[in-house]
Structure formats: structure tokens, C-alpha cells
Structures
1.
Amino acid sequence: MLVRDIYRLPVGAPFEGYFVIEHVEIRKHRTGEPFLRLVLSDKTGTFQALWWKPPKDADLTVFKKGDVVFVRGNVEYFNGNLQPKLSEIRVAEEGEYNPKKFISESRFSIEKQFTKLLEIIETVENVYLKKLLEGFFYDEEFVEKFLRAPGGKTIHHACIGGLLEHTLGVTEICETVAKRYRSLDRDLLITAAILHDIGKVYEYSVETSIDRTKEGILLGHLYMSCEMVAFKIAEINGFPEDLKTKLIHCILAHHGQYEHGSPKKPKTLEAVALAYADALDSKVKGFEEFIERELGGGTGWTKRHFAYEVPIYFDGKIDYGEEE
Ligand SMILES: [Fe+2]
Ligand SMILES: [Fe+2]
């Protein structure tokens, strides 16, 4: 059973299923007896659960973040939040569950999106920028990682293929911007759009859930993307120093503001266009994902968004993409 389906059950209804542990802590009843508080998830959502009365001989320390567990319980709410008390929980064996249940995939065909991205790379005329892009996107090892990478952990594009979907989204927005504002260096903007988040390939790990890697936490994808680009540029004979500076500036400034993690504010036409294109794609998609998760295909108001700090209204139909 998926998390989404549990939310649709009436209070008291039994449920069972496989979920990933997002968070686990051992707490104590007033009597001193231990119990478990868990946050469980799959690709359709998250809920809190309590293992209220574990057997006296149960080892509560075997449950770790990232483990897949089998649980049984009955639907119960506390302060308006789903919070069932579990009657059974055990760590699941590999092969017992379908790993695809835990992380969703981009709803658009990964192959088709990648082909589109390669077509856009073909339109770049500057030989140095084109060489740079080909250095990444004709490298099988990199491409394999890029196509699997998520665009984020929670706020937007948190799925396999999410980085590709977001990169293509930002790049297509930049193509439109470059057509409208002719003073922009189109090749530079398109290259920056395609490369702006490549550091996410190493910022996140994707197993049963999406997590930040140690490098991701310590360095962040803005620095990591710049480092990857600088390394690749060093392999290209005669790559103009000035072009490198402008490209790196676009990547460093793509979050737009210091408080969003950019060490530089946009100071060129291409950098400001990229920062807004990035914000546009991630915010609209972030809204869409939140609506989908909260309303589960229905309409009306969501609860307040944890990052955007507003409830969102929706009375349309979610685009689930094309069937492959
Ligand atoms: Fe970014
Ligand atoms: Fe981005």
C-alpha cells in the first residue's frame, strides 16, 4: 500500500506496506518503557508513526534511517496529522519489495528529454562552449549519473531524472529569453543553463531515498558545478579566460541572492537571465509537486507550503506527462 492510499482510508482502517525510514528515534513513556517514533515515506508521501508498545525483548536499535521496513497498523490521527500506532514493524529483506516504490521517476521520458538536450547543444555555435558541453554530454560515465540524478531532495524535481527535467526546463526558458533579448550572448546563456546544476550529480545520492552526500553538504552544488566546469575547461586548448570567467559567474550567481546560497549576485545579462529562469522552473515545478502530494489528484487549497510559506490553490488537472 502507498502512503497516498493510507491518507484516503477512514480512521481505524487497517493498513500494511513497505516504507523507508526517514527519521527514527527511541523515546520513553512516563513509565520508562521505550517506544519508537518514526517518519516513514515512499514516493507518494510521508507520515509519522509510533511503535507504541514494542514487545519487552524487542531491539529498537536495529531500525536505521534509510532502512526499508514492513509495517502494519490502523489509521489514526493526532492534531490533524496522520500518526498511526504500529502493531508490527520489521526491517525488510532486499527482494521482498519493489525499490521503484520509494523514489519516483521523472514523468517525462528520460530518453526523449535527453535527445532534446543534445539537440540544443548542437545549436551552440561558439566552438569552445560546444566542446565543453560535448565534453560532459558525450562522456558515458557522466551521462549515466546525470540521467539518474534528482533535481533536489524535497522542494522541486525530487525524483530520478529530475535534474535532466529541470535542466531542460531552464534551458528552454533561456532559449526563449535569448530570442526576446538580443543583447544577450545566447551561446553563453544556453551553456550556463545546461551546466548550472551539474554538481547535483555528486550532491545527492539516490538509493531507497534521496540524500545529500558529504560533499554535497560540505561544498554544495554551486561550487561543485564550477569546479567540474573549470576542470573540463582546463582540458580544452585555448579556451578564452574571459569566457570562462563569465560562464563561472553565471553558475555562481544562479541562486540570485546571498541568502539562497549564491556567493555572487548576478552582474551580467546572462547571469540575471539564468537566475530568473532557474527560479521560474524550480518554483512552478515545486508548486506543482506540492499540489500533487497534498491534494492527491483533487482540487482546492493545500496546507501552507513549508518553504514558500503560503497555501496553494488549484482547481485544474495535474499534467502526468505522456505514457512511455
Ligand atoms: Fe542550483
Ligand atoms: Fe537549478
2.
Amino acid sequence: MPSHETPHFDSPNFNPLARIYRWMEYLSFGPMLERCRFRFVTQCRDAQNALILGDGDGRFTARLVSINANIQIDAVDASTSMLSQLRKRVDRVSPQASQQVRTVHDDLRRFSPTGTDYDLVASHFFLDCLTDDEVEDLIERISPHLTQRARWLVSEFAIPRAGLWRICGRWLIRFLYFAFAKMTHLQVKEIPDYAGALSRHGFERREQAEFLGGLLVAEMWERKVL
Ligand SMILES: C[S@@+](CC[C@H](N)C(=O)[O-])C[C@H]1O[C@@H](n2cnc3c(N)ncnc32)[C@H](O)[C@@H]1O
């Protein structure tokens, strides 16, 4: 059930990477991003309505729909080619899975959901495409559309706390931003403080897992009950 809206002209352009994105990832980080992305997916078997932000080629969405036959998913991305990969991947899961996913072509710096009952949000390696202010604004826009106990899964790069990983991590993240600026015209240059923004909007971090010495983190946040 795809729906299409027009994204804004200054969105980063991930279209040229859509077909090769997975292979770029495997060549550079092996299975580690995948492990990070799927770290908490099995805990989402009971989720009913999910909003997936910038899922790219749809590996998380396809996995989620394959383990949860009841969930309805809105998957939003600014790249038509990524969304087309996502649809193909979900269609391969099952005909029923296709019916469970709605794709929305929009820039998440402006997108406003229509539903009011998402109990799950997932953003895997997406919040790093936004600035501090844009993350704050996104969470503020989305929050009224979430249930009281909504969970938010995050996968992100992070600067490791200590040692050689910290020195290498800093340079690697700088290099990745440089490479993505060249390939997609992404203008963001550093990882935003999404943890601060989630906390300010009433979320608490329930679980966290680190990979590659802390260069990758998977987190599960939950909205505090007021
Ligand atoms: C680095 S990729 C990550 C893809 C996927 N979530 C993953 O785990 O591999 C970032 C994705 O976010 C999308 N994206 C980046 N900025 C966006 C924006 N402002 N609005 C909507 N989508 C955006 C890109 O098109 C791309 O598909």
C-alpha cells in the first residue's frame, strides 16, 4: 500500500547507493551493523503499529514483519530507490507482509505522521543524518503520535569511550561523514545528541548493547508513564 509525497529539494540523495548499500556495509563492517540493527528486534513481536524512520533498503522492516504477523508499519524515507528496495524485500517475505507495510516518501525533517498510536519507532543509522536541532524537532513532532509506553529502537555510530577504539573511532566517523557528503550531499558533520533529546521528551533508555568496542550502539528506549 505505497503512498507518495514529494520530498524537499535539499534532502540528501541516497538513490545512487540503494542497490549497493548492503554490499558497501558488508565490505566495510562485515555483519556488525546487521547485528546492531537486529539486536532488539525479537523484543518487538508484540508491537502493533510501528513507524520506521529512514530504513533505507528495508532490512529491519522486512525482519520485523517476518516475526510479527500482526504489526502495521509506516516506513518513511526520502529516497525513492531505497523505498523501492524496501518494498521488494518486504514483498519477498510474504504477500501478507506486503499488506502490513506502507511506504512514505518524505523528508523526515518535515514529515508529520497521521496516526496517533505508534507503539514502536525504529531509527537505525538514520539519526546521524540529522543535526541536534533536527533530531529535537523530529522527536517533538512525532511524540504526540505515540502511545504512552511507546518504545524507540536506535542503532548508531558512537565515539568509543577509551583506548585505541576512541582514537580510531573519531577518525572513522569523520571519514564516513566525508564519504557520505561526497556520495549523497549529506550536510551533517557530527552525530547528534539524540540521547539528550529522547530524555528531554520523556524517554528512558532501558537497554543498550555495544559492538566494535563501542563504535556501534544498539539501544531500546521507552516512554516513561506520566
Ligand atoms: C545511512 S542510511 C541507513 C539506512 C538503514 N536505516 C540502515 O540501517 O542501513 C540513511 C537512510 O536515511 C534516509 N534519509 C536520510 N536523511 C533523510 C531525511 N532527511 N528524511 C528522510 N530520509 C532520510 C536515506 O535516504 C537513507 O535511506
